[in-house]
């Protein structure tokens, strides 16, 4: 376990000895050290507008330092195929969109699942939901990057709703939009490999939001312990992270926090991934 500088909006996040990925039930090691930042030599107008307009909210404050023990985390979001195996084995209820062809393809991330569904699946698989701190560490590495890949939004690195950018013709973004028009639809896991985190974890920004273990409290960062924080002891909403295909680029920042009632199964842009102690 190592300590690193503070995390939060614009700061360096969590510490950990190693992050690994679980892929199709097989443990796959990813590098302990973060890979170099992939930052262009010159900042583009797209980068400038993204950094300038992506919101920073009060619940991401204050910036503070924590340390985490080593852990494993899924390399990909849990897919429909994996979730169906869980349901078939009698582990839980089918997802809300199990019969909807827009969302039930085997390699799509499962959506229409509650926090309780996600918890049951991870337990069935011998795993658990990641804590909010573990999720952000896996997304940001140890250098405080804004997005898993570094800085600036690149349409090839994440699946998100980009259509609203066409409202800013003065930014000269039309060519980028023509090259990569807004998907506005869910995608198979791992569809944006150039957007992986420093640890090789896919879709930490975009595609679907992800449930994490913690209860939500907008003031939690002010009282968070400095070692393995697990969130408040109680609450009315659970945290979810990561941005989605249904929302714009402001949702992609690795520090962005969101919440929902844990029983909610209606979201077509909220899934999960699992974690495991080292």
Summarize the structure.
This protein is of the alpha/beta class and 278 residues long.
Structure description:
- This protein has helices spanning 45-53, 80-88, 115-124, 132-140, 174-179; strands at residues 19-23, 26-28, 71-74, 209-215, 238-241, 258-260, 270-272, 275-277.
- It has 278 residues and is α/β, with parallel strands linked by helices.
- The protein has a single domain (19-277), classed as paralog of FGE (formylglycine-generating enzyme), CATH 3.90.1580.
- It has a four-stranded mixed β-sheet with strand order 2-1-3-8, covered by helices on one side. A four-stranded mixed β-sheet has the order 6-5-4-7.
- Strand 1 and strand 2 (26-28) form a beta hairpin.
- The longest helix is centred in the middle third of the chain and has 10 residues, at 115-124.
- The model is unreliable at 1-55 and 166-181 (pLDDT under 50).
What's the helix and strand layout?
Blueprint: E1 19-23, E2 26-28, H1 45-53, E3 71-74, H2 80-88, H3 115-124, H4 132-140, H5 174-179, E4 209-215, E5 238-241, E6 258-260, E7 270-272, E8 275-277
Parallel strand pairs: 1-3, 4-7
Antiparallel strand pairs: 1-2, 3-8, 4-5, 5-6
């Amino acid at each position: 376990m190592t300590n690193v500088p503070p995390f939060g909006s614009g700061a360096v996040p969590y510490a950990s000895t190693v992050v690994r990925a679980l892929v199709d039930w097989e443990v796959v090691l990813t590098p302990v050290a973060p890979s170099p930042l992939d930052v262009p030599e010159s900042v583009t107008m797209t980068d400038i507008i993204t950094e300038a307009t992506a919101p920073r909210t009060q619940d991401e404050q204050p910036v503070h330092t924590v340390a985490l023990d080593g852990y494993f985390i899924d390399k990909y979001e849990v897919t429909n195929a994996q979730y169906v195996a869980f349901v078939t084995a009698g582990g839980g209820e089918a997802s809300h969109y199990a019969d909807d062809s827009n969302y039930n393809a085997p390699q799509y991330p499962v959506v229409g699942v509650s926090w309780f569904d996600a918890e049951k699946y991870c337990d069935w698989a011998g795993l658990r939901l990641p804590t909010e701190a573990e999720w952000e560490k896996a997304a940001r590495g140890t250098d405080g990057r804004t997005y898993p890949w570094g800085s600036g939004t690149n349409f090839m690195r994440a699946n998100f709703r980009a259509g609203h950018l066409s409202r800013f013709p003065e930014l000269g973004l039309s060519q980028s939009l023509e090259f990569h028009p807004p998907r506005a639809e869910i995608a198979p896991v791992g569809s944006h490999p150039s957007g992986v985190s420093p640890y090789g974890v896919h879709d930490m920004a975009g595609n679907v939001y992800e449930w994490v273990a913690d209860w939500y409290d907008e003031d939690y960062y002010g009282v968070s312990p400095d070692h393995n924080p697990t969130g408040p002891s109680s609450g009315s909403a659970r945290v979810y992270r990561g941005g989605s295909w249904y929302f714009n680029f402001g949702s992609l920042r690795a520090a962005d926090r969101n919440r929902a009632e844990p029983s909610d199964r209606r979201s077509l842009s909220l899934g999960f991934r699992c974690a495991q102690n080292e």
